[in-house]
Target: GntR family transcriptional regulator
Amino acid sequence: MSASGSLTSGGKGAVLRSDRAPPLATQVFDRLRADIVCGRLLPGARISEKVLCDRLAVSRTPVREALLRLVADGLVRSRPQSGTFVAPIEVDRVLEAQFIREHLECGMVPRILDNWSADVAAALTALVDRQADAAAAGDLAEFHELDEAFHATLADTAGLAGVWDVITMAKPHLDRVRILSLDRQRHVRRLIDQHAAIVRAFDRQDGRGAQAMLRTHLREVLRSLRHLRDPPG
Model:
């Protein structure tokens, strides 16, 4: 998949805006980061500065600034005389991000319990139901967005939305593995069931059970990583 392929939707509709919007370099960075994390740009895909400039109707300066940030984040690699490419998925970065996420989210459990209510349970259950609908429809992008909303709601319930922001910043490498794994139906069903089990544990004020299920759930990405590295024959 080429860089041009991910930015052609809507033709000129892909042009970035400068009125009342973040700096152009940030917009380019956000667009490319999303394309890489969501798998629209696969590992090894070439990224052309010229194509990006043409598609987004921006100069080379914001494109180069965005690419430098992506290189620093380990999502892009630049090779002299060869060009710029989407970085491969690095196991060490995935494991680091998983460690951060597991410890921060599991650490929220006592505060979630303190603030738990019927309204929170209903909101989370609705998200789980919508995830099941998205999975049945094969809408994996919607499924992932609802997954994010589920965990963000847990953080909001704990009064720790800022911690979720920290997790979000830490997990792009983790998300690359998560999203590439959503094509396995059994895996998707397991994620839905785990979300439902997490809600049930909180609903019965079982902090230990909620934390154990949340930990199991957050370690699913390790199973996915093994599957991607050593696919069944």
